[in-house]
Each structure stands twice: as C-alpha cells, then as structure tokens.
Amino acid sequence: MNYLRLAWRQILKSPGLSSLVIFTLALGIGSNSAIFSLVENTCLRPLPYPDSNRLVILSGQTSQAHGMSVSYPDFLDWREGQDAFSGMAIYRVDGGKLKANGIIERVSIAEVSKDFFSVLSVHPELGRDLAPDDDRVGAPPAVWLTYESWQRFLGGRPDIVGRTVMLNDAATTVAGILPASFQFYRQADAFMPIEGIVDRQYMRERSTHAGTLVLGRLKPGVTIEAARTQMTAIAKRLEHQYPDSDSGVTASVVPLRERLEGDSTTYLFLLLGAVAMVFLIVCINVANMLLARSFARAREMAIRTALGATRLELLTQLLTESLVLAVLGGAVGTLAGIWGYEFVIRLAPWEMRGLVQEAGGFDVPVCLFITGLTLLSGVAFGLAPAWQLSHADPQAALKGRKTTVGTPLGRVYLADALVFIQVTLAVVLLVDAGLLIRSLQSLTSTPTGLRPDRVITLQVSSPAAASIGVDATAYIQHYESLLERVQVVPGIETAAFASALPYTWDVSNTWFFRPDRPLPEPGKYVSANPHVVTPGYFATLGIPLIRGSLFDGHEKRPPLPPGAPLTIESVGKTYAGFLVSAVINKKMAETFWPGEDPIGKIFQSGSPSMNLARMKVIGIVGNTTQTGAENGEPPEYYTLLSQWPAAGQLHLLARASKDPLGVVASLREAIRQADPDETIFDVEPMASRISDFSSDRRFQMSLFTFFAATALLLSAVGVYGVLACLVVQRTREIGIRMALGARHADVIRNVIRRGLRVVLPGVLIGLAAAWASSRFLQSQLFGVESTDLATYAVSGVLLTLAAFLACTLPALRAARVNPVEALRSE
To answer: Using CA atoms in the order 48, 53, 59, 61, what is the torsion angle rounded to 10 degrees?
Structure first.
C-alpha cells in the first residue's frame, strides 16, 4: 500500500507528463482493443450454432467457376450417396412480398429443405419445427419467421403462430418464430420449405443451377478432408452418369465460417499486426518519456540508495508507478476502445458487418485481452527506466552522466536504442499504408466501362421468376408497362430493366457454343455472362457501341401466344427457326471470334441437348468490370427481354438529369400507379455501388493510414524528446562551446546531426524489414507490387523529414543558450 501511495504522489507531482503518458497509453490500448474486438467477433468467436465447427457449405465447382450453385437433382444424389454427414439440406435465398397491417413489405425468403433447421440444431422459440409433411409437393404453404421480422413486420403479436399471412400473394400459415439470437447469413427474414418450388422446370433440370447451395453437418469424428474425398467421388460418378450436364463439375466442401469470412480473415489479422506495432511504439514512446524524467530523479534515487534503500525496493517502487500509469491509461483506453470499435464497425464493409454478431462488443475475452495489455504495457514501458534508476551509480548520477547499453556496434545510449526501434516500426507501417493507398488509387482509376454519374438503381418486387413458366407474355408486358411509366417521370432521361446489374454480384455464367464449329467435348464448353435487358440499357449506363447496332425496340418478337408458358421443354418448339438478337462485348468478340468479324454470326446458349434459342450477333459494345476491377472484364452478351424473357426479378436503372436520389419518390409513385402491389427496394446510385465494391480495401487502407500516421507522430515526438533531454543535459557543454567561439549554426548542425544519426539507420532497417515482410501484404494489393520502389522511397523520405523537423526545435533551443547563464547553472 505504501508503494501505491508513493506512486500516486509522484503522478500528481508531474501532472503534465502523467497526462501525456496516460493519453499515449490510451491511444495504444484503445486502438488494440477496438481491432481485437473486431477480430474476436468476426474470426475467433464460435458461430451461434451448436458444434458450429462441424458445419460446412457444399457447392459446385468447375475449372472456370468456384462456389457455384448446386442443381436440385445433384443435391438429391449427394444426399443419397454420402455417409460423411449427419444431415444435409439445400437452400436458396430469394425476394418476396409480405402483406402485413395493410402495408406491403419487401422480405427476404430462404427456401430450405426439411433438414435445414436440424442441421443447424436450431428450434423455433414459438411454434413447431419444420416437419417432413411440410416438405412435400402440394403441402399447404407454411413459413417460419425470424424474431426480428416478427417484431418489425408483425409487431411481435404473441398469437401470430397458426395465423395466416399473405406471402407472395399466397395465404401462408405462420408455423413458428425462430430464436432472437438466430440469423443465417444475415439475409433471410423468413424460411419456407423448398418443396413448394421443386416441381418447377428450373429446379428439375440437372443442368440448371437456381442459386441453391447445400448446408451440411459432419458426423462426429469425420474430418473435412474425408468429406471432400467422398463428395469428389460422388461427383465423379455423376459426371459419368450425366456427361451433358455434369462434365467437369465437382463438389466443393468449405467450413461455414470460412465461407462467411471470405478474404476478411487475412486483412483483419494484418490489421491486428499493424495495431500491435502501434502498441509497441506507444510503449517505447512512454519509456522514453520516463527515461527523460529519470534524469531529474537520478539524484533522488542516489540519495535513497545512500540512505539504505535496496535495488529491489527501488525497482518495485518504480514499476508500481509504471503500473499505476498503465492502469489509468488502460481505463481511458477501454472507453476509447468502445468508441473506436463502434466507429470501426460503421466504417467496415457490409460483409464484415454481417459477420459481427448481435452480442459483438466487449465480452470476457476482450476484457481479459485489455487487462493483459494494460499489465504488459506497464512492465514494457516501465522496465527500462526502472532498471536504469535502480542500478544507477550514485556518483555517476550526481555527475549527470547518461546511461548507455552494450551492443555489437559498441556503447549506445538507451534512449537512442528505443528511438531506433520506434523509427524502424514506423517505417514498416508507412510502407504498408503507402502500398494500400497506391493499390486503392490503382483500383479506383481502372476504367469500369460505365458512366455511373446520375444513374439510380433499384429493384421491384414482382413478378416472381416462376411467372415466366406460367405466362411469358404477361411477364414481358408487366415490365414493359412499368418502364413506360418510368420513362415519363420528370427528371428521367433514359431508363431500362436488366437481369444483372454491374457491381452487385448478381451475375451468372452460361455455356454457349458455335453451331458453325465442331461441338466441344462434355465439360469443355466456353461460357459468358448473359444479360437480359430492355432498349435503353446501354445509353443509361453509358456503355459505348463499337461496331454494328444496338437494340431499338422494334425487334421481331418470338411466337409466344398470350397465356403460354416458357419452359425448357417448350423453348425448342417456340424458338425453332427464330433468331434472338444479341449484342456482345469486345472481350467476347476477341475471345471467341479471334481474327473474325462477329457481326451476323450465330451462337447458341446452353448445351445442344438443352435445345435453347439461337442468337445472332448484331453489335459489339465496350467491356465492363461487372464484379470489380480485380476480376477483370468478363465476356458478356446481351439479349432483349421482349425476345428472350429468360430472367427472374429485374433491376431498374434510370439516368436522371440532376441528383439521382431526387427522383426516387417520383419513381416509387409511378411504379405504384402501374401496379398498386409493387414495392421498390435496394435503392442506390450506381456510383455508390461501384464505391461499395472497394469498401473493404478502403476500410483497410483507412485504418493502416491512421496507424501509420500515429506511428509517424509518435516517432517524431520520440526523436524530439530525446534531443530535448540531450540539450538540457548538455546545457553547460553547449555554453562552454559557444563561449569558446562556436557559432549558432554549428550548434544547430551538431544537434540535428546527433538526431539523424539515430533516425537514418532506423529508416534503412525499417525499409529492409518492410521489404522482407512485403509478401504478406501482396494478396491485398491491386495494380501495385509489394516491392514498389516509389512507395518505399516516399515512406523513407517522409519519416526522415518528420524526424528532421523534430530535431529542429531542440536544435534552435540549443542555439539560444546563453553561455553566461549556462556556466552559472552548475
């Protein structure tokens, strides 16, 4: 207790220094706490399902596509042929409409097979489980609502179970309410049995992949490698059985957590490494502050030693003072960490925010981490000054000699060694931040092939994709009538509907072949991204025409009688002798018609056995980066909705004459006038979608830049502190030199040279360390190498400049020393 009382008295004795130490520690501990909380909540905390480490996602995989959806017939064969999983369920997520309380709400619906909840080991909080009778063709529609959607859409009515709601215009019984803690992929508001749609053609065809993935739970004792081996063998068998549809298709088995995390794990741990370096720089900076103060306390320690105090007592007292400062810094740092965590979450890209669970925040592991960090910091920054003062030679202390330590390069001052380490770490962070800035600049400057300014995008909620198979003509007319209303909205220049919108990941990949060439072997068909659009699509997005012509809206329509369904069986008959007009992009022309003029050429989508429509190339347009510059410019082709209505829900895009958000209300009203039951959602300017696609890189770059700037500032402060202390210690010497004729410029030059003598080796070693560790950052870069010389040069110069400025103030102070006063001070 006596040690604590003395420590508190010493802290109060130097309020300025103590406040600066606490603030600096709070910065280091708070930033570490915030980033560790993010890592713990996204990567380390178990998923909210029992034995979540046994949950996996199964998907299709080819040499051209990874993580693609699974056809329903393949899923049935997978489930039947495997014995590595205790349960396997298929699911897909789609949009729908919920009529509740007189309001039409847009909801996200997951259609799942009967084992879905049992695979997750989740049971409804209210109501009953999904039963086998629910999962059969012709069963009465039933829905399980998430707790959030129950509260948001239905007001949390306790009697809702067993009642009927209108879901996608069908009377549907609410069978259960899921627990409040349950969320799957953070996408679905409601869950319905998938058997309600499995009799539809797009689900029955083995060659059709309807956005479905498979969830599996490994049996106890079965490794994921064993499951992969078994699923690969099953996929091989299906490939031989169904060569037309399954050639080259294998099964991918990925842990659910890995699927959720994607690439975020890599850059989160890179951030954790960066913030750890900031923490080390903070500790070094505080250590240097206390070393500077130790000069003033050297006489005190010498006197206490002369009076009988042991080294252990002095060491204990000094470490107690450091730990008290660390605890205070930790307390302030915890508050800063809580605020910083919330701030970081707001900055984080949407996919990372989706990983953060509802309970995400400061829990037991995070509190233990902060406690350990606080104690570690107290020892880390307090040990050097405590050791120096407790082992000081009383005679040397009274003479004011600086402490040195031995190194392979000779005797160096301890404070200089700490600054050297500080500068080295700061250079590494500066190089990393510089590379990420260059990467983001390269990414954002890469042409997208689009003109996104003043373009607003959104989706409308109906009709469902299944309506194509009921009345294809009505499906076409529905969107054409909506488009007519939209095009006359004041402030709209052009508008169009499209099946796939750039920068939404809402893209598909379709096989095609050229009838004028020998047919490819099974599994070796080429593919491109298909788009179903309306006239005006290219003008709205600013995609330029290179050669040929675009759609003008007067194209001949296929023989689709009113009320006629469009199914895979009827396509061959309906489109026999009919050519669908197609516009292809430059990449598709160069890839599949090298050295030829594609205009007028014919190609056919799917495989020959599918007997889909033949398409005639009428024009070539510019390339677009549909899924970000990192993924390049894919081959693409475009067809007209009126000729080829093979699409589901469409995106509406409109170019406004002024602010695109200013026309949203008018668009909503125009769409409701066309169909009172319509709702719009996913409203966002095209420019924002493009920006959001690089949000993960922007997030990472922002944090690295902040940490690098902090390290740069602390390093400059460290250099300044050491030189300021040096000037105080050498005041008498400087006075004598000036009395003997030394000029002011000589004194300034001497102090600056003394500071740079420590900084420049640290810069060089830091550049070498950054070069050696650069391979860990390469996967996060685009358009720039991790060994980019310009970035290294700028980083080195920047820190050297900051250090030079930090040297200037003590140098100017030294030059102002009055020789007479300096000689009298001793």
So the answer is: 140
Burial class for 764, CB neighbours closer than 10 Å (0-12, 13-18, 19+) = middle
User: For 750-808, how does the pLDDT look when each residue is reduced to its tens digit (9 = 90+)?
Assistant: 888 888 888 899 999 999 999 988 888 887 888 888 888 999 999 999 999 988 888 88
What's 520's DSSP letter?
Answer: P
**SS3 of 31-71:** HHHHHHHHHHHHHHCCCCCCCHHHEEEEEEECCCCEEECCC
Specify whether the CB–CB gap between 214 and 59 falls below 8 A.
yes
Strands (E), 24-136: 55-61, 66-68, 85-100, 103-112, 126-127
pTM: 0.78
Close Cβ partners of 616 (under 8 Å, ≥ 6 residues apart): 579, 580, 581, 582, 600, 601, 602
Backbone torsion region of residue 605, taken as left when φ is above 0, otherwise alpha when ψ lies between -120 and 50, otherwise beta: beta
Measured CA to CA, the distance from residue 135 to residue 156 in angstroms comes to 26
Tokens of 554: 């007067």
Mean pLDDT over 577-598 rounds to 91
Reported as a single tens digit per residue, the pLDDT across 731-756 is 666 777 777 777 778 778 888 888 88
**What are the beta bridge partners of residue 655?**
455, 494
User: Coil, strand, or helix at residue 684?
Assistant: strand
What is the Cα–Cα distance from 336 to 330, expressed in whole angstroms?
Answer: 9
Region of poorest pLDDT, from 555-564, 639-648, 681-690, 748-757: 555-564
What gap in Å lies between CA 639 and CA 578, rounded to an integer?
Answer: 14
